Amino acid sequence: MKKHIKNNVYWVGKVDWDLRRFHGEELTTHHGSTYNSYLIKEEKNVLIDTVWMPFAEEFVENLRKEIDLNKIDYIIANHGEVDHSGALPELMKHIPDTPIYCTANGVKSLKGQYHQDWNFHVVKTGDKLEIGNGKELIFVEMSMLHWPDSMAAYLTKDNILFSNDAFGQHYATEKLFNNEVDQCVLFNEAMKYYANILNPFNPILRKKLDEVLSLGLTIDIIATSHGVIWKDKPMQIVDKYAQWAKDYQENQITIIYDTMWNGTKKLAEKIAEGIELADPDVVVKVFNLRKSDENDIITEVFKSKTVVIGSPTMGNSILHAVAGFINLMKALKFKNKKAAAFGCYGWSGESTKVLNELLSNAGFQIIDEGFKNQWNPNEEQQLSAVEYGKKIARA
């Protein structure tokens, strides 16, 4: 079912209420998602993006109810990832000669995935496509936001920026616009999306935001590829991205640990107690890595000025869940954040040294050599962990 956005622009996408994992199993989507596709009906009819492949037949059938497929003049492929382009093979069975506008890397992506030599038209920043009634689509390359092929398209007169993955959220809803949904959920999901997907590209994003703003385009609506459309004060999400792209942090310290026999857990709780005693204003959060969602924890890392990581020593090293999580943080390229390590051990006690090396390699500024405790911490050792928490707070 199409939904009206503005004038002759319609949403023709799919709401995926069931989605709980994305990018394979890498990203959790507690609130589902949407795959936003758009239909512009001017003198020329334009389809912007499609939906994920599992919904391809449903998408084409629904689209056929809204328009004679043979009357689609142009297809815009802002991004080749399968959640945007997955229905293209099914659609192109019906209209194989319809021109597809995308970046040069978009051609590589679509050919590489679907092995079809469709009627590609390569565009770059500033290129325009006339669609009638005095309106144009202006293309803006968005390379590495978040794939090399990504781009956005701007519809003149209606002042709509079809932003693709930028400014999106994984948020399933029948509502179309940002002011119609729960604002806490909306901004939490927008931040989670940024922290887990876009954070590695902060330097590129800062330049791209400046470039888009320098074009002097009036933006009344930002039509994303996932989640709700920004219609009410749309530049508020652009302002958020500008903040988030500057190595964002709040007054928060996050403690993350894995444990074998709860000794490291006790240290985590006592370190948190010490941080709170030394600085009542700081937000302290504690997560057992095995019992928490790692993408939600990444969002907390994104907000934090300091991250405290704990693992007991096992096999002269650390528990593999902790090693994997630090590797994830490294891939997301967090900057301007401090870190500290802690853990219990029975015999050799290498965990804090290993943690510090991994955290340093991941780009964190290490506070000190870390806090390690042999065997299960007694009352005196727990008090020492409290003091270590105070030291972290002061650092």
CATH architecture of the largest domain: 4-Layer Sandwich
Distance between the termini: 55 Å
CATH topology of the largest domain: Metallo-beta-lactamase, Chain A
- Text of the CATH class of the largest domain: Alpha Beta
Question: What gross morphology would you assign?
Answer: elongated
Alpha-beta classification? alpha/beta
Give the neighbour order of strands across the main sheet: 1-2-7-8-9-10-11
Query: Taking all residues together, what is the mean pLDDT?
Result: 96
Low-confidence stretches: none
Count of individual beta strands:
22
Helix content: 25-40%
Would you identify the CATH H-level superfamily of the largest domain? Ribonuclease Z/Hydroxyacylglutathione hydrolase-like
Plain-language structure description:
Helix 6 runs antiparallel to helix 7. The longest helix has 16 residues. The protein is an alpha/beta fold and 395 residues long. The radius of gyration is 24 Å and the shape is elongated. The strands form five sheets. The protein has a seven-stranded mixed sheet. A hairpin with a 2-residue loop joins strand 12 and strand 13. It folds into two domains: 242 residues, Metallo-beta-lactamase, Chain A (4-Layer Sandwich); 143 residues, Flavodoxin domain (Rossmann fold, 3-Layer(aba) Sandwich), CATH 3.40.50. The chain is 34% helix and 23% strand.
